[in-house]
Design a protein that fits this description.
By secondary structure, the chain is mostly helical. It is built from 19 helices and no strands. Helix 18 packs antiparallel against helix 19. The longest helix has 25 residues. The radius of gyration is 21 Å and the shape is globular. The two termini are 19 Å apart.
Length: 435
Amino acid sequence: MRSILGPRRVYLLALVLWIHLGDLLTAWVYYGGAVPEVAYARLFRDMSVLLAACACLATTRMATSILLSLLIYGALVLLSLGTSATAATSPGIVLGSFGTLLIPLLFFLVGYYCIRDYADLRALVGCIVIIACLSAIFGVWDIDHTDFWIQTVRFPAYMTDVKGMVFGAEPDTGLPWNFFSDLEKTRRAAGLLAAPLAQGMFLAVAGLLVLATSRGGLRLLGVLICVGLCVGVWMTATRGAMLVGTIAVAGYLMTDGTLRVHKSIRIALAILAVLVIIVATQDILEATAYQTDGSSPGHWAAFWRNIEGLPQIPLLGYGVGMQGPIAAQGVILTIGGGEGAIFSVAYQIGIPAAVALLSFYMICLIRLWRAHRDYRSSFALATFWLMVGFATTLVTSDHLLAVSGSASLWLLTGGGLRLLSRAQGKEHHLLEAHA
């Protein structure tokens, strides 16, 4: 029997803690430049992820379809990186954008490498849910205490000096504009993640995990925690997270046959959940539909610029660093509309690479659905619906290419498919995780 503190599990949990608490803690220690050496902690985290991913490829067997799609996408990224060496983009932007493009692969491989049994998966799910609950509670407080970010943590200096934020700061506070939902500077909950957009996505993931680990029933405590996390998502005013959560919760309730309630009741609950979310977000939905807020027109225009430019994209793209969030901070002329993970991939490294990434995504979805069908796995079904929900962001945002926004999803997907690969070799083995 393996130790409950095995090195892989310890590393996995430490990584999850660092991903979701790292910005807040680092900014606090950095304190406007008082301890500049703390900035290297982020580099150490990234190098550890790269090493763990390489260890996975070198030592772990995986399904041919998954491995092939990963290798094709990774090879196209490397090939495009070579062609980007002669571009007018600075090396720092190229290197940062290169790492961003590899985020789905790296964190999937880390999850695949570190999660070897159901105890590892339970530990990961438990860690995610606990952090999410604490972050949602902290968000209730931080939304009314903007001075905490400015004076106590000195977050603006951290964003500028360490994370390289050139554009996107609100002039009066120096905080990123995404801390506010409108020009009147209405605060959004940033939580322990110190990022409203990432906070919303993370809470959506945790909310569905609570339902998936309810041991076959909709227990009152689990439902209350899920509702509380949904309120936390609402407080972030993140439309993408609201859509992801709505799709994931409704889809899960309608398709999970392990819940000890009749199918008609599950469908009714799914419809009720959707109606409640629509009512709670009515103002946001109306502002989005009529484009009366500050961001919707820009998102819509960026989407159409991306669509219009697709036919002109070279085979290997325009080069790493020519689109994406890092390029947007690099004071360079970017190509296309600049939003949407799949557009970011296509414009930087070519449409074949975008197809390879989509193929990898679809293979994960298919295998997760088969795991649910063959083994009645609530966890596989929950991850499936989370990936379906996150797919809506492929053309609207860069969440799937952001560490804090999607790392938990890729870790869960990698770990779940690792357990599936083991379950397929054992008769009567159920792929099920109970937290």
